[in-house]
Amino acid sequence: MIIELVDHADHEDAEQLAALLRSRGGSPHIVRWPGRWLILETAQDIDETWLRQLPIVARVVGSTDPHPLSGRKFQSVSTMIEVAGRWIGDGTFLVIAGPCAVESREQLAATAAVVTSAKASMLRGGAFKPRTSPYSFQGLGVRGLELLAEERLRSGLPVVTEAIQPKDVETVAEYADVVQVGARNMQNYALLGEVGRCGRPVLLKRGLAATIQEWLLAAEYVMNAGNPQVMLCERGIRTFETASRFTLDLAAVPIVKRLSHLPIIVDPSHSAGRAFMVPSLTLAAAAAGADGVIVDVHNDPASALCDADQALSSEEFKSTMVDLERVLAVLGRHVA
């Protein structure tokens, strides 16, 4: 169950109630939520009626969900997240676009100019790149973050970029508007806790072989650390099929919408692994009810140092955005 304390409660009040619960055989966990204190109680035999009568308690949500904070029982209204004036989860459609990796000032500036002119919502770009091979391009590190910050000032687009180690989170959060957790780090619990404390919205990608429940539990780690601003990202899962890089699980969109109040976006680029599929999968994500997409775009895909096969060219991205606006218009939506 989730025990929500009254507005004027402080940490001492939460500690006192937790001690009282432990004396009754409970296993409480205190969570600092924005503007309030929560206590998560996993013991099944705590009397909810008794709890509701305590003056320090504002609300008790009985829930057997393994992911209580992200579940609909705790919050029935869908979460909306604001990033520099753009809203995620409010019915508009978020388009995050840019290069898989920041390679140079010239490459980033040229690509950012394209995604800005095509009216994307945010700029993506990897400064730290966890690659399958240790010999592949690993990103520019802090220099890449600096270039992203420069481009944010020039273009006005908020920046989304990935943190891959707990020690890097504070630095990434200094430069980024949204901190991304990649698929390979979905169950890096130390990292999840750190991004949960960084004060930035978090884009959490689904692991390569993760179930939806495991994915929501990963979100729970971030939220449990006090950060409710989590966006889930379906980026394809590993199946027996080899025609695409991964299998895009679009069924995850309505399933997550039913189970969780968190917004969900789709990554058609990493799931497909080949650029020709990305436009169709982008439109499919919109039709499935996703809150947005994150798309790889490069000013010269043939020369890209990271995932060249899946990057859209400037013209391909512009064409995709035109088609996307048409599909969204039919659905009564528009790009954020």
Automatic annotation (TrEMBL):
Domain DAHP synthetase I/KDSA: 87-325
The keyword Cell inner membrane is assigned to this record: no
Keywords: Transferase
Gene3D superfamilies according to UniProt: Aldolase class I
Protein name, per record: 3-deoxy-7-phosphoheptulonate synthase
Encoding gene, per UniProt annotation: aroF_2
